[in-house]
Amino acid sequence: MFRQNQVKKILFIGHEATRTGAPYVLLHLLRWLKANTSIECRLLLRNGGELESEFAKVSQVLVLNPEGGFGGNIIKKRLGYYGIWYSNGNKYSSRLKRELLGGGVDLIYSNTVTNVQVVASLAEARLPVITHVHELENIIRQTLDSEMINLMKRSTSHYIAVSDSVRRNLIESHSITKDRIDLIYEFIQVQTVDSAQKVIVKRQICKELGISSESFIVGGAGSFEWRKGNDLFVQLAFLMRRHQVDRPVYFVWLGGNTDGAIYGQLCHDVRLLGLEDSVRFLGIRDDALKYISAFDVFAMVSREDPFPLVCLEAASMEVPIVCFDKGGGACEFVEDDSGFVVPYLDLITMADKVSALLDSEDLRLRLGQQAAQKARRLHDVGIAAPKILEIIQRFI
């Protein structure tokens, strides 16, 4: 256990508790801090989600906008209960501030730039603020106007960037100096691969999908939105038809709201392209890693993704990855030893590389095993969390 002489209490601020990248990273960090330090963690979530009950196991949790149906022993108090209102820069009640900061807090840790208004409302406490930046410029500009960006820069003492792409964007687009940014790549709790179990799981998944256990599965994952490139995944499936491989190839996408408009648009394309038999959208699954372990290749088709955790999950399952350059942090992980990096939006080259992996079991296994080794060596929570702890200690 890490001994703590000064750090007593940290207020963590998260934007939501959904099964997505930034909340999962925060959950991994809080679990590690609880297991390895004496820090008292408090968590303020702006919105609720499926992970609330998991957060409640490692921290006191307050949810400003709880979504019904999640958790049972969580402190859920609506905005109106505190008399909080939104006007002229989001003024929060003194009662909420007392609840959050009462008893002494040493530092505020904001997990995403989107929490800036909450952080700014606590400025009178004059605490150091670390902002963990999981966003690239497109999302920053969509969620923050110029005034809010300036507010973030005034409120933040130090930044953690989740990829070099994010770090460079903070420097080049927002004139934040290098000495105020630490680069710590995204991380997960890396799982150990059992090769025999992988074979069994692959058969189970194929049976569930109604396909032959000898089939190839090309996987994709993420919410249904422009950034994630769901439409590109469908186009990739169409282009792959020209490639002759020795087994049937299926394209399986994890995640996304299958009740939304974008899902309907994707199904429209799948139908008109005659891909109903080969493209499957599975929606959100609690056991996503099981499906990922059944993939033969992971197609990272995101247009913009700071550092997708699903790439680390695929790598941990020894699944090689094909991704675009210039699309964010995926290419910083894949490089030339864990799959292939192809030119931005070049689906023809991506199809060629996916086909090359499917055609060569030796290549597929070698790159997949190297990806798993890299994930364990560089991206496990046990590697990254101590680095974050050192930054926390630096700013107390």
What keyword list fits this structure?
single chain, alpha/beta, Rossmann fold, 8-stranded parallel beta sheet, 6-stranded parallel beta sheet
Plain-language structure description:
This protein is of the alpha/beta class and 396 residues long. The chain folds into 2 domains: 9-188 and 380-394, Rossmann fold, CATH 3.40.50.2000; 195-378, Rossmann fold. It is built from 17 helices and 14 strands. It has helices spanning 21-36, 52-56, 79-82, 94-101, 116-121, 137-143, 146-155, 164-174, 195-209, 230-239, 261-272, 288-293, 309-316, 330-334, 347-359, 361-378, 381-394, and strands at 9-14, 40-47, 60-65, 75-76, 107-111, 129-133, 158-161, 181-183, 216-221, 249-254, 279-283, 297-300, 321-324, 339-342. An 8-stranded parallel beta sheet has the order 4-3-2-1-5-6-7-8. Strands 11-10-9-12-13-14 form a 6-stranded parallel beta sheet, sandwiched between helices. Helix 1 (21-36) links the parallel strand 1 and strand 2 (40-47). Helix 1 packs across helix 17 (381-394) and helix 10 (230-239) packs across helix 15. The radius of gyration is 22 Å and the shape is elongated. The two termini are 19 Å apart.
Instruction: For the largest sheet, list the strands in their spatial order.
Output: 4-3-2-1-5-6-7-8
For the sheet with most strands, the description reads: 8 strands, parallel
What is the general shape? elongated
Strand content: 15-25%
- Cα-based radius of gyration, to the nearest Å: 22 Å
Query: How many discrete structural domains?
Result: 2
Name of the CATH superfamily of the largest domain: Glycogen Phosphorylase B
Please count the beta strands (DSSP E, at least 2 residues each).
14
- End-to-end span in angstroms? 19 Å
Return the CATH class of the largest domain.
Answer: Alpha Beta
**Tally of separate helices:** 17
Could you tell me the mean pLDDT? Answer: 90
Helix content: 40-55%
Oligomer: single chain
Judged by helices, strands and strand pairing, the structural class is alpha/beta
What is the fold-level CATH name, i.e. the topology of the largest domain?
Rossmann fold
Low-pLDDT stretches: 68-92
